[in-house]
Structure formats: C-alpha cells, structure tokens
Amino acid sequence: MSCQPIDQYATQIPREKRAAVYQGTKATHEKRTKLLFDQFADPNRLRRLAGEIKQHTIENLDTYLPQVEAKLKANGVNVHWAGNAESACKAVLDIMQARGATKIVKAKTMVSEEIELAPFLEKHGMEALETDLGEFIVQIDHDHPSHIVRPIIHKSRAEIARSFEREGLGAYNDDPETITRRARQFLRHKYLSADVGMTGGNFVSAESGRIAVVTNEGNSRFCLAATKCHIAVIGIEKIVPRDRDLAVFLNLLARSATAQELTTYTEFIRGPKSPEQPDGPEEMHVIFVDNGRSEVLASECREILRCIRCGACLNVCPIYRQVSGHAYRSVYPGPVGAVLSPLLMGEKFPQKADLPKASSLCGACNEVCPVNIPIPDLLLRLRNRAKEENVPSVGTPPMGGWSILASQPAAWRAALVGGKIMDFLPLRHIPVPPLSKWEAKRDLPPWRGGQFRKWMKQRQRPGA
Amino acid sequence: MSDDRESILSRVRGALAPLHERAPLPDYDSELAVMRKLIAGRDLAELFAERIKRVNGLAVTNAADLVAYLRKGGWLHGYCDPVLWPKLQPAFGPDFTVETTFDRKRVDDYAFGITRAAGAIAESGTIVLNDALTSSRLGALAPWVHVAVIERALIHPDLPTAVAALGTDPNVIWVTGPSRTADVEGILIEGVHGPGQQVALVV
Ligand code: SF4
Predict the structure, then answer these.
(1) Contacts of B179 in chain A (CB under 8 A)
(2) Cα(A142)–Cα(A162) distance, rounded to whole angstroms?
(3) Cβ proximity of A362 and A318 under 8 Å
(4) Contact B174 A265 (CB under 8 A)
(5) pLDDT tens digits for range B14-58
(6) Interfacial B residues in 67-86 facing A (CB < 8 Å)
(7) What is the ipTM of this complex?
(8) Does the Cβ of A253 fall within 6 Å of ligand 1?
C-alpha cells in the first residue's frame, strides 16, 4: 500500500523537528485559551459575532468592493485590480518601473507569497527583500514558510546560525539574541536604501478605506517610515464593513495568533504621509487580488473566506502537529490550508484533493477559530466534491472489511474485546508491509476498546 | 488593470447571485470587545501604567525619572521632538547630547528618540502615535529607546474607544510594548527592528 502524500512527507521529518513543532504549537494554544476566557465576559459570543460580520461582508462583496475603492481613491490612494497571480506581480512591477525603482522591502504578506512575487521581481532585475525575521531566514535559505504566523517553526537555532554564517552575517553563533541583533543591523540599512515598501493588509474598513496592518517586529512600520512609495497587496476578502468592527477583530487576532492581547504594532493607514511628516511614503498603491477567491466565493465552502490568518487552527490540529507545514504543499498549511489550498487551485483541484482527507475531523479547529469557520464541515464537502469528480484516492486503505465488521453488532463486540491482543503483539515485526510501515513511524496507544460500553452499562444500572 | 477590475466584480456578482438570502450585518454592543472587569472604576493613567508594564514597557510621570532612567541605561545621545525639547531640556544634564532633527544617514547613532503621542489605550498598555503629532516616524522607531510623551487627558479606556478616535490622520499606529519576535525556537527577543525599550512619559 502506498502512503497518502501528506503521510509520505511526515515519514521524512526527523523526530526532533516533529517534537519542536508539537511543543511550539501546543504552548501557544494553551496560553491563548486562558487569555480569551479570563478576559472577556462572553468570548464565544465574541467569536461568533466576528464570524457573522465576516460572513456578511463576503456575501456582500459586490457592494463593499466598489465602496472601498471609492474611499481609498478619495484618500489619495491608487487602486489596482489583479485577477490572478501574474497580473498582480505585473502590477507591482509596473509601479516600480514607473518610479524607476529597483529595491523593494517587504513586510510579511501571505498574498505576495501566494502569487510568488519575490522570484518574479528578481527575475526582472529587482531586489526584493523579506524583512520579517522568520521570512528573511526562509528567503536566504530558499525555503518556504511552514506556519502562517511562525514561518520557521520547523527550523532550529543551529540551522539558522549556519545560514547566517553562510550569508556573511557574522561567524557561527546560535544565540537567538545575537541572531536577532545581526538581522536588525543588516535589515535597517536595507529599509533606508529601498525605494518601495510593501505590506499586506489584515483588514480594510469599507467605511473609511482605512487599512489595518499588524506586525510584532515593527518591520511594516519601518517599511512605511523609510521608503517613498507604499504598495499594499490585499486579498479581496479582507474587507470589514465599519471601523468599529476593527476593535472586534484586532482583539481576537492577536490572542488567537500569539496569545498576546494586542499585536505590538497595529498600523492604521488611510493614505500617503501627511505633508508635514519628514518620513513616510508620498505615494500609495493598493492592489486587490482575486487569484481564485471569487471561485471560492461561488463554491459551497465560501465560509473559509472569513479566515483572518491567525494560525490558531494549525496550533491545535493533531495532524499539523505531526506533519508540520510543508506537507500541505501550499502557502496555507493546517486545517485552513486543507480547505483553502485545493479550492484556490481552481481546475487543478485534483492535485490537492488529498488534503481534506488528512483530518481526523475532531473539530478542534472549529472550536478555536476566532471567526467560527466550520472547518470539519467544509472538509467533508470537499471530500464529497473529490468523490463526485472521481478524483482517484491515493494511499487510502480500503474500508470494505471494516464496514462489514462495524455493521454487525456481535462481530463488532467480539472485535472490541479481542482487540486487546494488539497490546501484546510485536506489530512492528509482523511481515505485513502496510502494518509495519505504519508502525515504524507511530506508536499505537494502548487498546481501549469496549471501555465505553462497560461505562454505559454501569450508568444504566438502577441506582447507579 | 481596468479589465481585471470588471472581470473580478462580475465574477463576484456571479458568485453571489444564486444566494437566496445574504447574511445580515450584525449589530452589537461594543462592550463585548472590552475587558470590562479591568477598567471599571479605575484611574486611566494608573491602569495604563500597570498594563504597559505587562507588555515590558515602562510608564513614568515626570521628566526627572525619565532622565534618571536614560542615564542608568547609558543612553546619552538621542533625538527629541523640537516642540518638546524646550520643556524637557532643564531636566537633562550636560552629559546628554540631544538633536532636534533626525538625520536618517546616522540612523544607528541615536540611543533614544522622544516624540509626542496622540494618546494611549489603558486596557492594553498601548501608545498611540499619528502623523499630526509625531515629529518623525523614524525618530520614534529606529533608536533603541522610544519615549512617548502622552497627555493624561488623551488616554482612552479601551480598544473600541480608541478606534472611534482614529480621526482622519493618514497614519495612526498603536504600539504595545517593544518590537518583538519569537521566530527563533519560540524564544522571545525584544528590539527586532524597532525599539528594545518602550517608555511612556505621562504628563
Ligand atoms: S481558519 Fe480560523 S483558526 Fe484557522 S487561521 Fe483562519 S481564522 Fe485562524
């Protein structure tokens, strides 16, 4: 039996790396829960509300998009539209060429990752530099981010130290503080010599055209303090109706992403700098990117467009914790990626149709999601779509035998009792390839079959 | 890209056309997004001082304390907003050199930067800066220590109130503690690109 693609990836991850991802995700998740539940009177109501606001917005994008465009223009911003990745990259290049610009510094934007902007610009002779520490390391390593919020969750400090040494950023030193200081020194001079600063946009208010951008490192602020031109690349789903909604989302975003009450830098941008300011961009462009989003909007899974990219579902997902981000083969890993990535593929959906199957459907992602996206339901809808489109399923074991067993109560009961024998069998050494292959990478938990029935019976006893 | 504009909008309209009903815009009480328990009955400047400490910032209430803090850290050369400097100068000794224009060519030379804030948010310990009052975006960002001078009357209790006060300034930024990252093995390091020390002088 061959493995599912995601499994295949997992078998190749060293144990330490897997442990690092597991620890990193778990710690953030636990802190987050505490923070949310201690501080708000009704945190669940808050996250349901956020979901409702976003659902309303995406279902009325036909009104909000022109509204936001008009507001931005009135604020002195140039608005561009890009139907696909190529057109988005081209729009950035055109703006740069019109200004005679050759250097761009980027604060992390998922969309620019999605449209593969940096390699495109480099091909056209531009210098495009990532400034978020994690993204910068990913860039010098020619690697890809493996987490939405913590791009290098899969890298150890020793690896990073080796990369810095290789790139001429000082002799080998794996102290995280030294690594950070070296990056600070190197990058701040890059900001000052760059022509264009690029950011994403976490939220755009349709009411005022105000764009909210959050970072912890302050790199977006540096981009917008030192350069003369600002380009924001923003997915068309990032709109919220009113300014007051920003407070709801900002409260939820930081807590869900990194267990902070508020992200360190939250910047509200309405347009180019004011004339009195010595620093800041004199010119501002917003590029609204579709790149498959309108198709997602037309699909049965449009709820996924509510996503505010907090990464909480990754942190809580038992699958993500085991396989880490690269296994999802896309910019968006974890549960959100398992829904969004196949959908964004458009006609090439079958290439990623395996991702929705890589889930235990435990529901943890839905429970933590600050915008209450029913991810397990969406995964089921996508599994169904794969079935309807006759996408061949690779590596999924045939379930025929199991379904016979599970539909015969007597046989099922016997199997539950008899299953105890599994605890004593040397499974790894049984010469059945699928079994030994599976066992080589996993530890089977002790058999617990039948316990629930016993518990039920006791509960039903009169007087119990 | 006007072609793209039309085709995106028509795809969006096409995607939404089959919906019989569209989700309504919910109305809600802003209190829902407020850490109410924290704020009730508190003096806002006091609460702000307490909360900024939680995010590894510091609040002081007079210039002498600020000067002592800078001296103790060995931060003797810096930038100060030209409007603030005449008022602050008497508290600074001759061991300090302070410039009132920020020269970006010497970005690494300034140990501290003192600028005016447009306000603060008590519940989160946040400093609010905008273009109208901040004399230099770089002056408030590049030096290791940033000092924001905040008028007591401009402290908002919570996020919804601060959002309502954003006004028409082209750029408002909320700063909650020093610049930070946990990218390397989840270990928290401060002073990544911006300040490693975030100080508020509440007047
Ligand atoms: S799906 Fe929900 S939990 Fe996951 S990243 Fe998006 S907003 Fe966060």
Answers:
(1) 216-218, 264-265
(2) 14
(3) yes
(4) yes
(5) 999 999 999 999 999 888 888 777 788 899 999 999 999 999 999
(6) none
(7) 0.96
(8) no
